[in-house]
Design a protein that fits this description.
The complex is a heterodimer. By secondary structure, chain A is mainly alpha-helical. Chain A has 11 helices and no strands. Chain A starts with a helix and ends in a 7-residue tail after the last helix. Chain B has 15 helices and no strands. Chain B starts with a helix and ends with a helix. Chain B has helices at residues 2-29, 34-39, 46-56, 62-74, 88-123, 128-141, 145-159, 182-189, 194-229, 232-239, 244-266, 268-281, 287-297, 300-328, 330-334. The longest helix of chain B is centred in the first third of the chain and has 36 residues, at 88-123. Classes of the chains: A mainly alpha, B mainly alpha. Chains A and B meet through helix 5, helix 6, helix 9 and helix 11 of A and helix 1, helix 6, helix 7, helix 9 and helix 12 of B. Chain A: The chain crosses the membrane at residues 33-54, 101-126, 147-173, 266-288.
């Protein structure tokens, strides 16, 4: 009888639409989110193919063509569709290559912060009270510092570079994952399915990663999307302050910092990199809102 | 309530100690010997070096060093700046009013626009105004504010010439800083035009620093309002025939304000992080710019002391918000 029951359950599971399809169904409801998703896809494609689609090398200097405006303005030149910067480098090529750095920063920071944060959060949720308290106080300490300030100071210790900026941002963003994971773990631990798994003899590792973790993932995925955009913003801010990627790297924040003194003479060297940051971050945040609505009805922003 | 207060303090103390540990460790994990760094490019003799090692206590056990650092901190001794040779504590509190003034203005700006925007969006849920306001809020939320600042400078300072680009007041005016707040001091000085000048210097930094809190407050107000509007007592109020203005304005908004106030209180950290960028761009002589400059000048005692003071400030504000929240909402206390 037991066997028959489980079989019945199995067929029921098969009849349900696939998880991904169900997710897409809800995600599609939010038009802004879908819009953001396609922009993000475009961003990823640009990041992947930048060296091949960019018309020039992003660091090559065409000295005789410095500060050429975009083509639609007087004095524009078709070989530099979005103009050139003060050193005669092609803006379009630099912007396209900049997408690589932002994407790279986003991915690395989210992967490092999320994996570390999830591990610590699971540990805190499952461990005895003293270890839980210890981990959470450590996270409180990190959260007491304004994120950008802590990142700045960490970079000052490690030395300014894009890698160190990523490490710093990942450290700063990690506590959010710890808190989120711990809160969901504690919420799940009291439920019957966890107790039954425990009674059935599931070991600690199995309980952590197979039984509980999948049920805690929804808010973590939403957080991942949001911290992807935070990572891009913070890395650009550090670059802007001279503490991130160093010139001549075509990172968007660094480009802005280099262009600062030309703001009143050449609008395009300032406007375009910032616009690139804004559009990317906006697209990811739109997607994040949609993810939240689709994955986590509890958090639904009505 | 007492239990709640005590439990909050019980988590505050270890965090405070941890924060002092981090700022204590900061100067010791830096690459290079802090004494050599302080000597700068002139270098120093071995005798002088040994003398300084003893003076700074680097020869004693780390635990003793930490204890002395902690007792020093509690008495307001945060070390001396390498560059200006002034106590870090004095420098911090000389510059702090500038940051406070800017932050208060930014917060007023954010609340004054964000609250009505959220309420209007909630009342027009799904309609044009809701979409327009919430799209704008999301753009504000995604804004790289350092770029936003440059754009505003291009338009309002460069093309229109309406606002100055940097500083707190025109150099024409000079008066003693009695309160440290330029708006109040310029009024007290009685010089004509001083106050207008101070206001004109404040406008762009206020907008830049207030943008992200504004977006957060608008979004939070909208969702809190929508939640409250779904409650039974609102339906009762409607059934009683109360005018919609009274329902939205008094019954709903009052309860929707609780989470909004929390968000406002907790955005102190965001404001200070934003102040780093805003002050750097507008040459605003506050603690954000001071920290960035000190990092570049390798003025490590300043970075160390500033880091500690800022963190403690954020912690104290968060603790206050928590306690106030517990005071308003009994449900929180029970946990």
């Amino acid at each position: 009888m037991d066997h028959a029951l489980s079989k019945e359950v199995e067929t029921q599971v098969e009849q349900r639409p696939g998880r991904l399809r169900e997710f897409w169904f809800y995600f599609r409801e939010n038009r802004g989110a879908v819009f953001g998703f396609w922009i993000f896809v475009a961003f990823v494609i640009v990041a992947a193919t930048a060296p091949w689609i960019a018309p020039h090398d992003p660091t090559q200097q065409f000295r005789e063509f410095a500060l050429i405006p975009p083509v639609w303005q007087e004095g524009g030149n078709w070989s530099f569709p979005l103009g050139t910067d003060p050193l005669g480098r092609d803006m379009l090529s630099r912007l396209l290559n900049g997408a690589r750095y932002s994407f790279f920063v986003g991915i690395v920071v989210v992967v490092v912060a999320a994996s570390g944060g999830i591990l610590l959060g699971l540990l805190a949720g499952f461990s005895p009270k003293w270890l839980d308290a210890l981990i959470m106080r450590l996270m409180d300490i990190i959260l007491a510092f304004p994120s950008l300030l802590l990142a700045l100071v960490l970079v000052a210790i490690l030395g300014p570079s894009l890698t160190n900026a990523m490490i710093a941002i990942a450290i700063v963003l990690q506590p959010h994952y710890v808190r989120l994971t711990r809160a969901s773990v504690i919420g799940e631990l009291g439920k019957d399915y966890v107790t039954s798994a425990r009674v059935a003899g599931a070991g600690l590792w199995r309980l952590m990663f197979v039984t509980v973790l999948p049920n805690c993932l929804a808010p973590i995925i939403v957080q991942a999307a949001l911290s992807f955009s935070t990572a891009i913003l913070d890395a650009a801010a550090l670059g802007f302050l001279g503490m991130g990627a160093q010139p001549p790297t075509p990172e968007w924040g660094t480009m802005l910092a280099e262009a600062r003194e030309f703001i009143l003479r050449a609008w395009w060297v300032v406007t375009l990199p910032g616009l690139a940051i804004l559009i990317t971050v906006l697209a990811i945040n739109l997607m994040g809102d949609g993810l939240r609505d689709a994955l986590d009805p509890k958090l639904k922003r009505s | 309530m007492l239990r709640y207060v005590l439990s909050r303090f019980a988590t505050f103390l270890p965090t405070f100690i941890g924060v002092t540990l981090i700022s204590f460790a900061f100067i010791r994990v830096l690459p290079g010997d802090p004494i050599i760094v302080m000597a700068g490019e002139r270098g120093m003799s071995q005798e002088r070096y040994d003398e300084l090692v003893i003076q700074f206590g680097f020869d004693r056990p780390v635990l003793v060093q930490y204890w002395e650092y902690l007792t020093g901190v509690l008495q307001g001794d945060l070390g001396t700046s390498y560059v200006t040779k002034r106590p870090v504590w004095d420098e911090f509190f000389a510059l702090f009013p500038a940051t406070l003034e800017l932050s208060i203005c930014a917060m007023i700006f954010a609340v004054a626009l964000g609250l009505p925007a959220g309420v209007i969006a909630a009342m027009n849920r799904g309609k044009f105004y809701d979409r327009a306001l919430m799209s704008t809020a999301l753009i504000g939320y995604s804004m790289p504010i350092f770029w936003w600042a440059l754009l505003l400078i291009i338009v309002f300072s460069g093309n229109l010439g309406w606002t100055p680009v940097s500083g707190r007041i025109d150099l024409l005016y000079y008066f003693p800083d009695t309160t440290g707040f330029m708006l109040i001091d310029s009024l007290l000085s009685g010089q004509s035009g001083a106050f207008t000048s101070a206001v004109r210097h404040l406008i762009l930094p206020t907008i830049v620093l207030g943008t992200i809190p504004l977006a957060v407050i608008a979004r939070q107000t909208r969702s809190a309002m929508l939640e409250v509007l779904g409650e039974d007592y609102i339906r009762t109020a409607r059934a009683k025939g109360l005018p919609p203005g009274r329902i939205n304005g008094i019954h709903a908004l009052r309860n929707a304000l609780i989470p909004v106030i929390t968000v406002i209180g907790l955005s102190v950290g965001t404001l200070l992080a934003g102040a780093i960028l805003t002050e750097t761009i507008f040459s605003w002589p506050g603690i954000g710019k001071w920290m960035v400059d000190s990092i570049f000048r390798r003025d490590y005692p300043v970075v160390q002391g500033g880091l500690l003071l800022i963190a403690v400030m954020v912690m104290v504000v968060n603790l206050t918000v928590d306690l106030l929240y517990g005071l308003i909402n009994p449900k929180i206390r029970k946990r």
